[in-house]
Design goal:
single chain; about 475 residues; Arc Repressor Mutant, subunit A; Aspartate Aminotransferase, domain 1; Aspartate Aminotransferase, domain 2; 3 domains; four-stranded antiparallel beta sheet; 14 helices; binds pyridoxal-5'-phosphate
């Protein structure tokens, strides 16, 4: 490695320490070293650089190499060359200001165990099968797939989704009524407020993140009470409603079939819309999953889903199945070109669906999560028989109802055990008037296999005594 202190005294005004790697192109190395020195502020704007000959001698380089490097940096705008006054660092080559990152408050250490809901088992992502699908999809994709994206999404994906959702979820649709998006959160942002202005009835317990989306969109939400049959849709007094009918999030019950019919009747009678969030519809362990409410009335139900639970929330692919009259308004919000869902992911998912890889993955992962849930139930039966999961055997989380007033204590005890998880209070709509429910929301999918027994152990230790 060539190193040199280039002390050019008044010419440079400062000592310049340049390090060039011993191998590789000398010219490129010198350019990189000078760029670094300017970027880091070691060479301030206006500083005059040493003449070619002296820098070449100091670094053991040919004079032309230095001349070339200066010329390149002049062309890039880092340096300026002025006839008769040599080469100087350009005035506008400002060093980057460091980004201030907020100081983390000293506090609780990172929890040792994670049973927070919302995360699938990241170690179970089907890497090999996904990669094979990506390769096949890329091999046959037409050239136009790599042009500007259609805001409806790739036709291959909409075709595959139409077939899959009809077969697996009882959705009645055609590819023309499907709009690809980056997930349910994106779907809600597309719909509200431009397509559906609100107010919007929502379940009293739901995802706070979704409530924040509505608040940011200026859409008022009205909480519907929940009981053992799901949301009390008979209390609906606005035309638009968002529900999680297959598996109420987070409390865990399905919407009773009378209420499914009632909510479909309500949106039909009022000219309203049900937005059906089918976030984990594929994961039912005690029976075949109940089909989507959308099948009852495709003209008044917007069906939204994504791969966030079935594959990974990082893939960022989802879909909206729309009533015919809402397709154009949603596309108008999306704009002329696809800006959210990348074509590589879309083509891969289309191939994964069409080849049966997605079904195989779902069958495999469903067994995995079913076993996870069974192990939770067994651990509770053995060590805390007074606590049982409520709701149906489905999804990636279970709710453990607790006696009134004990949720906070249990959460503190969990934190003491190094266990991260949420209580039901975190999901409650601030305006809800239904009686408070105490409980823990246990995401049994999240921990990697080796960590699950210890996480269950910590959970059982955190639960209040009988
Ligand atoms: C109720 C609910 N809906 C939808 C989703 C999926 O959201 P997205 O598709 O934006 O990742 C989640 C979380 O994964 C959820 O908890």
């Amino acid at each position: 490695m060539a190193k040199a202190w280039v002390n050019s005294g008044e010419r440079l005004g400062a000592d310049l320490h340049l390090e060039l790697p011993g191998s590789g192109g000398k010219r490129a190395a010198l350019i990189a070293a000078l760029r670094d020195a300017v970027r880091a502020g070691r060479l301030a704007p206006g500083t005059r650089l040493p003449p070619y000959r002296s820098l070449a001698a100091d670094l053991g380089l040919a004079r032309n190499t230095v001349a070339d490097a200066y010329a390149e940096l002049v062309a890039e705008g880092w340096l300026t060359a002025v006839q008769g006054s040599g080469t100087r660092v350009a005035e506008r080559a400002e060093p980057l200001k460091p980004v201030r990152t907020p100081k983390k408050a000293p506090g609780a250490p990172k929890p040792a165990y994670n049973l927070r809901q919302g995360q699938p088992d990241a170690t179970s992502f089907p890497r090999t099968e996904w990669l094979a699908a990506a390769r096949r999809a890329l091999n046959v994709a037409p050239h136009d797939a790599f042009g500007p994206g259609d805001p409806r999404g790739r036709p291959e994906l909409r075709e595959a989704l139409a077939q899959y959702l009809a077969r697996a979820r009882g959705v009645r649709t055609s590819p023309e009524r499907i709009v690809v998006c980056s997930g349910v959160a994106h779907a809600l942002r597309l719909l509200f407020p431009a397509v559906l202005p609100g107010p919007l009835a929502v379940e009293s317990y739901g995802l706070a993140f979704h409530r924040s989306i509505f608040a940011a969109a200026g859409v008022r939400t009205i909480p519907l009470a929940l009981d053992e049959h799901g949301a009390r849709v008979e209390d609906l007094d606005v035309p638009a409603v968002l529900l999680t009918p297959a598996h109420q999030f987070p409390t865990g019950g399905p919407l009773h079939h009378d209420r499914r019919t009632a909510v479909a009747g309500h949106v039909r009678a009022t000219g309203g819309v049900l937005v059906e969030d089918d976030y984990d519809g594929e994961f039912r362990y005690d029976r075949k999953p109940v089909g989507a409410v959308q099948g009852l009335d495709p003209e008044h139900v917007v069906y939204a889903g994504s791969v966030s639970k079935s594959l990974s929330p990082a893939v960022r692919l989802g879909w909206l199945v729309l009533p015919g009259h809402l397709v154009d308004p949603v596309l108008a919000v999306k704009g002329e070109r696809e800006a959210w869902a990348g074509v590589l992911g879309q083509l891969t998912l289309a191939e994964f669906l069409a080849s049966g890889g997605y079904d195989r993955h779902i069958r495999r992962i469903r067994q995995h999560y079913r076993r996870r849930r069974d192990r939770l139930v067994t651990a509770l039966a053995e060590r805390a028989p007074h606590v049982t999961p409520t709701g149906i055997a489905a999804g990636l989380h279970a709710v453990l109802r607790l006696p009134p007033g004990t949720e906070n204590t249990a959460l503190k005890a969990a934190a003491w055990q190094g266990l991260a998880l949420d209580g039901l209070a975190a999901f409650r709509h601030p305006d809800s008037t239904m009686s408070t429910m105490d409980g823990l929301v246990v995401g049994y999918a999240a921990p990697p296999e080796h960590a699950y027994p210890a996480a269950l152990d910590a959970l059982c230790r955190a639960l209040p005594p009988a």
